[in-house]
Amino acid sequence: MKFQLKMINPASLALAVLSVALLQPLAFAQMQMKPGSEAMPDGKASTSSMQGGAMDMKGMDMKGMMKDNNDKMSSMKMTGNTDVDFAMMMRIHHLGAIDMAQAELRDGKDPQMTKMAKAIIAAQKKEIAQFDKFLAKNGQSVDKMSK
């Protein structure tokens, strides 16, 4: 019995891996939702999660943050250059991780989770700087990308 392996397009494989990596945290966040903190169907946070009626990142729950982050990624115009597209998407993904970690620092109580949030912020900022450098080198303006 002979097995024949087909070659997989590296760009297709990279996009598939990136898709799984980006959607997995959303599925995990949905499993971790506490009652009363659900986002509204239009993506806005429920009034129970708003602070003073303000609809900014500080007032959104974790699920709302993930939806906002995924909306930014899915609306991003792709260049067709896998390396550039990866860097742009991961930059947005990392900014979302920082937003969530900052929410943990603001509202979290568990010392282990706040310690992890601090480590995540430091690591993600370092990687964002690397993405920014790569994108600038490849003619992509970071200023044009939404934060």
From TrEMBL:
Question: Which residue ranges does the record assign to the DUF305 domain?
Answer: 45-134
**One Pfam family from the UniProt entry?**
DUF305
Keywords annotated in UniProt: Signal
The signal sequence is 1-29
Q: Does the keyword Signal apply?
A: yes
Q: Which InterPro entries match?
A: DUF305_CopM-like (IPR005183), Ferritin-like (IPR012347)
Name of this chain's protein: DUF305 domain-containing protein
Q: Which organism is it from?
A: Polaromonas eurypsychrophila
